[in-house]
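Archive entry. Fields below.
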Amino acid sequence: MARSSQIRRIGDGNVLVVNQIVKEKVGILIGGGMAAEPLFLGYVGKNMADCAVIGNINAAPSPTLILEGTRAINQSKGVIYIFNNYTGDILCFDMAEELAEEEGIQTRSVRVWDDAGSAPIEEITNRRGITGAILVIKVAGGASNLVDNLEELYRITEEARDNTRSLIVVSRSGHYLENGEKMFDLPDGQIEIGVGLHGDPGFMKCEMMPVDEVVDIMMEKLLGELQCKRRDEIAILINSMGATSITELFLVNRRINQIASIKGIRIHNTDIGYFYTSQDMVGFSISALKLNGERKTFFDQPSNSFSYKRD
Amino acid sequence: MARSSQIRRIGDGNVLVVNQIVKEKVGILIGGGMAAEPLFLGYVGKNMADCAVIGNINAAPSPTLILEGTRAINQSKGVIYIFNNYTGDILCFDMAEELAEEEGIQTRSVRVWDDAGSAPIEEITNRRGITGAILVIKVAGGASNLVDNLEELYRITEEARDNTRSLIVVSRSGHYLENGEKMFDLPDGQIEIGVGLHGDPGFMKCEMMPVDEVVDIMMEKLLGELQCKRRDEIAILINSMGATSITELFLVNRRINQIASIKGIRIHNTDIGYFYTSQDMVGFSISALKLNGERKTFFDQPSNSFSYKRD
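PREDICTED_STRUCTURE:
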C-alpha cells in the first residue's frame, strides 16, 4: 500500500513484484520468513530485486509461492534466487527450483551465509545468512540490468556473497510478535557477539564494554576473514537490530572509520539504518562487502526500493 | 563520516552543510537539540535543507552556531530557519536572526507546531513541533530550488506548516542517553496519545487497545483539524519512535489507507520509517500534510538526504 506505484502483490500470499520489469533481463527473486523486516520485502525495486516472496513469521515461503513469483518475473532469461542460509529456506527454494525447471524456467540459487559468528570459516556453508544479504542483493540487482546471462549473473552474485561478512552484537533480546515474550535470555549488562536474530548462539558472551572495543572485535573478524589489506575498498552496512538508535550507530561508524584509516582501507560507501530487525531487540550489526572493479560498478547502480535507496 | 561526499561539518560545533550549494538560492537552515535523531541532521541534502545546526542533548543550538551555518549557506538571497517550537529553540533562533540581520543577512523563521496533542487548536502557537517538521522541510527544500525570493519561500513554508498535523502514541518511555534512565512513567499495558518525545503530556491516557482503534482516534483528529474532505490529497509520514518495528508500522498504514478510502481522501505519498526517535521508545507517530497544486509540486521534487530520499 505504501509503494503501490512501484510494487504490487500478486495472488493471495506475500509475493511482491515490481510494477515495471525491464524486458529481457535475468530476474532476481529474494525471500524468507517474516519478522526480520524490512528484510526481504524492503528490497524490491530498481536495481534491487524484482520479486520478494515472504513466508509466515519465522517460516520460509512455500515452494508454490516462490514458483508464483518466479513465473511473474521470468522473461526467458531465467531467475536467480537469493536467500539466507536456513534449513527451511533451503528446502523450499530447492523445491521451487525443481518446479520451475519442470516448467522450463532456468534458476540458480545463492544461499547467503555471511554471519561470521555462526560457525568457523571451515564450515562456512553452515553459517547463517543475516544483513549481508542486502549487500549481495544490491550487487546482484545492479548487475542484473547490465549482465544479460544467467550463468554470468550467478557467478557475480556468488562472488558478492563470498566477499561479504557480517556480525551481530546484542544486549537485549527481541520479542516474539505472536506473544510478546522474549526470544532468549541475556542477563542485564551482558552482551553477546556473533549472535543470530533469534538468539542463535554467537562466539562471545561477556560483560558490557565500550562500543569502540566491541567494534574493534567485530571489525577484526570481518576484515580478517575478507583478507582486507591496504588500499582495498569495502562497503559498510551498519544496522540497528530494532531498538538501538541512529545516534548510537553513528558511534559505531566513527570507530569503523578510525579502524579503516589506520589500516589504510578505503570505505567506498556507508549505509546506516534499520535494514534487518527483530522486534525491540537492542543491538546492531556490521556488514562488510569487499569490492573489486566489477562489484563496485554493480554496487553503484542507483537503486530505489522501500528500504534501500541510493542515487 | 557516512556522507562526506554530500555534506561536511564546519567549525567545531555540529554545523552540517551541503557540499554543493546551487548558486543564488534562498538557504534553508534547520536545527534543534540532539537525541531525536535523525532529526535534524538527516535532512540535509538535495531539495531538503542546506544546513542543519544541532545543539547538545535536548538543548537548542547556540545563536553563534546558527549564525555560522547562516553565513555558510547565505548567497545574498537570505536564509529561512525551520525549527520545532520549543522555548530554547525560539530564543536561540531569534537571537541568531538578530545577529544575521546585523551582518546584512536577511532571515525568516518558521516555527513548526504540528503536534495536535500538545495544546488546543486555539493555542496552536503553543503546540510542540514533532515529525511534521520533516514534511515542512521537504516542501521548503523543494521550493527553494524553484522559488527565488525570500518572502515567497517564507509564505510557502508557513503554509506547509499550517497544513501539517502530527500525533505521537507511546506505550513505553524512551531512555535518557546520559544515564539510561526512563524519561517518564507509563505503566505496563497503558498507552498515551498525543504525548511528546520526552513524555510531555498528551490528551488521552488509557489501556492498550487494538492498533486500528488507536489509528482511528489519531486520524480523526489529524484529518479533522486539516479539514480534509472528499478528493483532498495528503502526504502521510508514519514514524517509529525508536523501538517499534516496521512490521507494526505497516499495520498502521493499512488502517490509514482504509480510513482514507472510506473518506474519499487520496494519499499522494506515504513515508514509513525511523524519522524522529527517542532512545528505545515504543510507539509511533502519524503526520499528515494537506497538499494543494503548489505544495504537491514542491513536495515531489526528488530529494536525497541521509534520512529522506525520494526519486
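CURATOR_NOTE: Chain B has a mean pLDDT of 96.
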